[in-house]
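Weekly structure sync, notes
Attendees: PL (lead), two postdocs, one rotation student
Agenda item 3: pending single-chain targets
PL asked that the sequence for the first pending target be pasted directly into the notes so everyone works from the same version. It is reproduced below exactly as submitted, 413 residues in total.
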Amino acid sequence: MRQIAATIFRRITAFGLGSEVLDSLAMIARLSQHLRKMFPVTGFHFDRPLVLLQSDDWGRVGLRDQEGLEQLSAAGIKLGERPYDFYTMETAEDVVALAAVLKRHQDSHGRHPCIEMNFIVANLDFAKLSGSDGHLPFLPLSEGLPQRWSRPGLIEAYKAGIEDCVFYPALHGITHVCRSAVEGTRADAERGELLRTLWSAGTPYIYWRMPWVGFEYWDPEGAEDDRFLPRETQQKLIGDAVGAFAKLFSTLPHSACAPGYRANDDTHRAWSQHGVQVVQNGPGKLLPPYFGRHGLLQLTRAIDFEPAVHAAFSVDSCLQQAERCFERGVPAIVSVHSINFHSTVRDFRSRTLEMLDQFLSALESRHTDLLYVHDEDLRELVQTGGYRSNGGNVLMNVTQKRFFPASAGQGGA
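Predicted structure, written out during the meeting:
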């Protein structure tokens, strides 16, 4: 239906018909997307407990350590109201410490847990801002970090963890924010001044203070039904991101998570065209894995493991959520953002690693048949009934049940 509506839309545009007709056709296209969610899909359920660790924002710079904190404080920005004021960037030591904890654990087949790192593959190039033509300049992560940023050995630490099979690289995006929203804001006096203050200190943005920056494929200032960027724009952004990812890791990404979880059918189409096979969705509904449009396996996170962000965080609560997943035969997909492993301005890393160690130990002691997998394993599993692990195949029963994604809530899988 959507393709038909789009074809009619193009033909009407070519003949120059009125805006009322165009608006009606746009509404039909949106309605067709909504109706698709009302049809049942086939979800996959498993007879053994599966655990996946998914993590966003790796490779993205934030507050430029203590020096940046002091510079912004001197400029009148009071930091410390929320944890994300202290989002900085992981160091090689942070990454090595995380890998060491993961290597202490293993599942029933002797395999270590593997954390999926969703990478932002470029950062704002502060050195080129003054000479830009209004468009934001970006520096690929493969070419280093922006001016005055230093993280010795970080790229090597990523790659060592990947080689040891405790890290799995996946795609987040070129940048976390909607660049057209930021570019359109620079002329605004108040917003522009805040941006310039942050940029002078080597900080691209602090999202909770300025939600108008949006997310890469989503502009919050657009009309309610027109906030996602056009298909052609998204295709270009995703193509650039995949190219930068391949240059950094010498492989194409097979799994992706949109910044802010803001993705639509155009995003999925572009991902699929560039080799992505699995989509990571944000928490909110307890859903089994299922295939959506464009042949993409849809995964939904079930557990918020965020000790740095939530003051009342509890390992016991996370374990209870994992048990609910296992009871329903769906994977326990854990969401843990990179801020939880940062240490240079506030030591979020120590508490997180201690609690992650407790969480994994408890799962292993409770379930002697526990399996640690990543997205690519899960896709192989739903297609073949097994996946490769430590040189052998792990087989299990995979059952299929029909459900309605739009109406399924917590426990509704």
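Discussion points:
- The longest strand covers residues 50-58.
- Residues 231-249 form the longest helix (19 residues).
Action: rotation student to compare against the earlier draft before next sync.
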